[in-house]
């Protein structure tokens, strides 16, 4: 699904301000001012998350949410000036993942977006594991045969490279230090050579990344460690 967020809001000022803020934070943004436009854009662009106003012209946000749920399993956050607990409950029952009342703080909105995307990523991983394969973006691992495919083509991995890949894919967007990875994969405490982690990650990147020098899957966070990026 990438990192596209669809903002469904009929108030132009709120719509544009929210879009500007999220774009600065690195998200791709798409806009809709009513429910019908939103439903078409959900089908066409398949966003990773929808910000949905309740009071929309023509079709209420609750109904839009229900129709989106029929098409796509995408996180939805309601944005509304309606503050009663009844309205919030109705939004959650319609299929919303969260409900934020206006006016809202942009930093809080971003924090909620990040939290919901993390939860959604973990749910996706759990669903895929029950079907005996694990897939994130263009990387697919058969958990029975341990065949690894990148963009439909099988690649050969050494045992530790495969263990490393599976560990990171099962914890998408979670940062692990080299020490934590070493303990998980090599299981010998901290008495070995921690540098072996960076060597294996470098070798793994050569096999799964289009550009190993600018990786899109396994990211390095200097001073913190590594993470496997679920949505690019």
Q: Which fold name corresponds to the CATH topology of the largest domain?
A: Rossmann fold
Distance between the termini: 8 Å
Secondary-structure content class: alpha/beta
What is the total number of structural domains? Answer: 2
Query: Average pLDDT, to the nearest integer?
Result: 89
| Large-scale geometry | elongated
CATH architecture field of the largest domain: 3-Layer(aba) Sandwich
Q: What is the CATH domain class of the largest domain?
A: Alpha Beta
Q: Counting H and I runs of at least 4 residues, what is the number of helices? A: 8
Number of strands: 11
- CATH homologous superfamily placement of the largest domain: Response regulator
Strand percentage, roughly? 15-25%
Radius of gyration: 20 Å
Major sheet attributes: 5 strands, parallel
Describe this structure in words.
InterPro entries: CheY-like_superfamily, OmpR/PhoB-type_DNA-bd, Sig_transdc_resp-reg_C-effctor, Sig_transdc_resp-reg_receiver, WalR-like, WH-like_DNA-bd_sf. Pfam families: Response_reg, Trans_reg_C. Its main location: cytoplasm. This protein folds into two domains: 4-129, 3-Layer(aba) Sandwich (Rossmann fold), CATH 3.40.50; 133-228, Orthogonal Bundle (Arc Repressor Mutant, subunit A), CATH 1.10.10.10. It is built from eight helices and eleven strands. It is elongated. It has 232 residues and is α/β, with parallel strands linked by helices. The protein has helices at residues 12-24, 35-45, 61-71, 85-93, 106-130, 159-169, 178-186, 195-208, and strands at 4-8, 28-32, 49-53, 76-80, 98-101, 133-136, 139-142, 148-150, 153-155, 218-221, 225-228. The longest helix is centred in the middle third of the chain and has 25 residues, at 106-130. Helix 6 (159-169) packs across helix 7 and helix 6 packs across helix 8 (195-208). The termini are close together. Helices cover 44% and strands 20% of the residues.
